[in-house]
Amino acid sequence: MGLLSDPVRRRALARLVLRLNAPLCVLSYLAGIAWFLALAFPPLTQRTYMSENAMGSTMVEEQFAGGDRARAFARDFAAHRRKSGALPVAWLERTMRSVGLEVYTQSFSRKLPFPDETHERYMVSGTNVYGILRAPRAASTESLVLTVPCGSDSTNSQAVGLLLALAAHFRGQIYWAKDIIFLVTEYDLLGTEAWLEAYHDVNVTGMQSSPLQGRAGAIQAAVALELSSDMVTSLDVAVEGLNGQLPNLDLLNLFQTFCQKGGLLCTLQGKPQDWTSLDGPLQGLQMLLLMVLRQASGRPHGSHGLFLRYRVEALTLRGINSFRQYKYDLVAVGKALEGMFRKLNHLLERLHQSFFLYLLPALSRFVSIGLYMPAAGFLLLVLGLKALELWMQLHEAGVGLEEPRGSPGPSAQGVGLASLVAPLLISQAMGLALYVLPVLGQHVAAQHFPVAEAEAVVLTLLAIYAAGLALPHNTHRVVSTQAPDRGWMALKLVALIYLALQLGCIALTNFSLGFLLAATMVPTAALAKPHGSRTLYAALLVLTSPAATLFGSLFLWRELQEAPLSLAEGWQLFLAALAQGVLEHHTYGALLFPLLSLGLYPCWLLFWNVLFWK
Amino acid sequence: MAAAMPLALFVLQLLGPGGWCLAEPQRDSLREELVITPLPSGDVAATFQFRTRWDSELQREGDTDHYFLRYAVLPREVVCTENLTPWKKLLPCSSKAGLSVLLKADRLFHTSYHSQAVHIRPVCRNARCTSISWELRQTLSVVFDAFITGQGKKDWSLFRMFSRTLTEPCPLASESRVYVDITNYNQDNETLEVNPPPTTTYQDVILGTRKTYAIYDLLDTATINNSRNLNIQLKWKRPAENEFPPVPFLHAQRYVSGYGLQKGELSTLLYNTHPYRAFPVLLLDTVPWYLRLYVHTLTITSKGKDNKPSYIHYQPAQDRLQPHLLEMLIQLPANSVTKVSIQFERALLKWTEYTPDPNHGFYVSPSVLSALVPSMVAAKPVDWEESPLFNSLFPVSDGSNYFVRLYTEPLLVNLPTPDFSMPYNVICLTCTVVAVCYGSFYNLLTRTFHIEEPRTGGLAKRLANLIRRIRGVPLL
């Protein structure tokens, strides 16, 4: 600390920071990006390993043999569903009861804030059916969940069939220590959300639903199943949940164990991967980027994502049927599920031993939080360095480096904080308008313009977003003329600190989102100043705004999926993503939309303000 | 459904002598009986009761002082053979003869429900209660899962359930009987068939409905002599039509609502399914101190309206000393669901207070509901000494009500739990380092530094000047 308390050395350090600021910033930024790219390569990735003792060795023997039964159930279910056009509740109830479960139903209804054009939903009312297998001689204090979300299209019949066949098999076993809930939800995630809210007796999203008649204690783990064919070539696992939450890594390890045991081909992000091959690490980088993009989106990738809010470790298994030669039937999938449930049944404590915060460059490799955080740290250091530079320049009253000994003049103390109030308030108000107005004003917009409500919401969103750029930037007339630079420097200083704080907090909870935003916003935020070629800076600033980041991420995403987008498709996808983002905030409580509109967009506007400071 | 009794309640009942034992009780007697009841769900419940009574010279001193009554629950006991073996050794015939030969652990623990109890109480030997006997009553109830064992059929036999048959009574027993619930048998002979056919039957009102039991007396030589063993079998001739089992008038459900590790809510749902009668229920809750109850959030609603309990007794918890005790008398309207909810905050324990496996969660004991439920059939108060033992499980207060005590399910609540591992230590260390750094950084940031020119030089300078003065050179 002597370094800082000794005025002479402190001054030397300050001079170093001021003189080397630009190279240090560039270095730090490059280090952050390089560190991130290096995450996919061996010294930073480790092999996954099972931490939980209760699930350690694979000492369960899977006996599930109900493949024919599962297919018969699936056929019946699909036929009944086609006949009734909705979830065949009565048939499900009857069948679950016939395999010996305690059956309950739950009806729910929800009016979405505006019509969902992707899923073609607006006023939704449906019924969830669930059956509870009571563990013998236990007091229903703990339970496991196997859930199948059924959408409006007629997929997932095979998953329901397998669920029923598994229920029939599980019912005949004596070893269960935890109750098992077999849940079939209507309107996929909406139904799951309704059921979870009713189970925990909370109302987070304004869902109206009937109270649950049967419960089974604290849910320890959940597996969501999506299967649409009798044969599968591979099983894909999705871990990314709401707001980028991830299940405990041990659950993934468990799945992987049974994949290996059953000889199943298991994939992550829908891509098979061979780590040992020559370009294994490069594939790893691709997977890592895919995972970062998916996690950053903050949307639940499967109905497991909604369980995570309630501290229920969950993942989604998707059966994929492609043109591969080796196919597995439902028995293989059922055996993997049986094994997983028997292992979860052994759990004494909740899953807590392994990592909750990780990135996956492959199914069997992970990067822990301690290793990926420096990447975000380096990026945020740029903001810190810039802020430090500005602070010193302001503090030394523009006297500069030539006269470090000169006492700061009286004007230096009045940094002109009053002049900051107006831009801060205006940008925050813009953010608030961006958050509130699109949904509030959709009917007005739909009346006055020839657009549907959903379009109205998206277009209002874009309009307000763009309007923010055109706001008056001459709100700082009060600033004294003797130090013309002081105003924008103070504003930029505040904006830098605000941005660094926000990005830091985001990176802690959802690293992917924090890193993506930092990687795009930091350089231009550091560069923004009202001198030089303003048009270039403005273009850069617009290109790195949160909306442009979203737009770019969509292209990157499709590029990594090896299905590149054309510009027009990209624009359509962008509009759909905006609508989905708003909807997911209102229906599931996803935080990306409020975060961008109330936090990052106003902050970004401040930099825009700095750029056009007169 | 709910209403699951705690698995093992080893109850030591020290009840008052009661007014019914005016007749001279038998000395040193053993009565044993087995009641087999087909449940509406298709499962079969078997309840064993053994009553041993012996004289003792121990004298009772007056009535039980209620001041000394204590209530305690262990919500986490899982019954296993370790509980059964010592329990069996208390029986006079152990498991060698009589009904207790059926107590085979591997079958009893292959059931879907198991409850085992020991009751001990003093019984007056005469009207003035000058001398007493002690009564030890042991009960064991199991429910056989017809779905697993019977492949979906409801038929049963003693051998299939216990993999044993009855051969002889316990030589010490004064009464040794098997009761089989054949209520439907009498209404309609087509429904079921019992083999061997019962010689005598017994009718009684149990839990508000009239029941008929076939009696097989092991002391009656004819019962066993026919084939040297007794394997009672019951066959249903027609499958029962009702898919939905009848719902009891009173049942309850309990759960924790909310999420996160800071707050939560304990909710108890009380169902009164009686179509037109309301009745009061006494609800007793003991909640551990580490769930800090907010009593002002206690809400009781039935049919959407506030339901004011007619009696509330609340004893607040003391940290590490005693739990919360909440007792309420609530009137349940006819055909209604009453929700009793109270919010709590999860306390942070000291790190030595966490149980082993702290991430499993902490148990909260079940609520106890006691109620006088209106019965469908008027029952006559019976002579307790003469009636079968199992009647003591279903006490009747008067003709129109019967007494029910229900235990809701225990709850598992997660408390904020530190990660007792290496990362935890790392976090502690990091926090310390950050705290130290923060202190000095804050100090630096809030202080201004000025350079002060030294008025006099250091020791070295003075020494140098001294030497210079001696040498006659200009000073520094």
From TrEMBL, chain A:
<keyword id="KW-0472">Membrane</keyword>
<keyword id="KW-1015">Disulfide bond</keyword>
<feature type="transmembrane region" description="Helical">
    <location>
        <begin position="355"/>
        <end position="383"/>
    </location>
</feature>
<keyword id="KW-0337">GPI-anchor biosynthesis</keyword>
<feature type="transmembrane region" description="Helical">
    <location>
        <begin position="564"/>
        <end position="583"/>
    </location>
</feature>
<dbReference type="InterPro" id="IPR007246">
    <property type="entry name" value="Gaa1"/>
</dbReference>
<keyword id="KW-0812">Transmembrane</keyword>
<dbReference type="Pfam" id="PF04114">
    <property type="entry name" value="Gaa1"/>
</dbReference>
<feature type="transmembrane region" description="Helical">
    <location>
        <begin position="20"/>
        <end position="41"/>
    </location>
</feature>
<protein>
    <recommendedName>
        <fullName>GPI-anchor transamidase component GPAA1</fullName>
    </recommendedName>
</protein>
<feature type="transmembrane region" description="Helical">
    <location>
        <begin position="415"/>
        <end position="436"/>
    </location>
</feature>
<dbReference type="GO" id="GO:0016255">
    <property type="term" value="P:attachment of GPI anchor to protein"/>
</dbReference>
<dbReference type="GO" id="GO:0006506">
    <property type="term" value="P:GPI anchor biosynthetic process"/>
</dbReference>
<comment type="function">
    <text>Component of the glycosylphosphatidylinositol-anchor (GPI-anchor) transamidase (GPI-T) complex that catalyzes the formation of the linkage between a proprotein and a GPI-anchor and participates in GPI anchored protein biosynthesis. Binds GPI-anchor.</text>
</comment>
<feature type="transmembrane region" description="Helical">
    <location>
        <begin position="589"/>
        <end position="612"/>
    </location>
</feature>
<keyword id="KW-0256">Endoplasmic reticulum</keyword>
<feature type="transmembrane region" description="Helical">
    <location>
        <begin position="493"/>
        <end position="516"/>
    </location>
</feature>
<feature type="transmembrane region" description="Helical">
    <location>
        <begin position="536"/>
        <end position="557"/>
    </location>
</feature>
<keyword id="KW-1133">Transmembrane helix</keyword>
<feature type="transmembrane region" description="Helical">
    <location>
        <begin position="456"/>
        <end position="472"/>
    </location>
</feature>
<dbReference type="GO" id="GO:0042765">
    <property type="term" value="C:GPI-anchor transamidase complex"/>
</dbReference>
<comment type="subunit">
    <text>Heteropentamer. Part of the GPI-anchor transamidase complex, consisting of PIGK, PIGT, PIGS, PIGU and GAA1. Interacts with PIGK.</text>
</comment>
<keyword id="KW-0325">Glycoprotein</keyword>
<comment type="pathway">
    <text>Glycolipid biosynthesis; glycosylphosphatidylinositol-anchor biosynthesis.</text>
</comment>
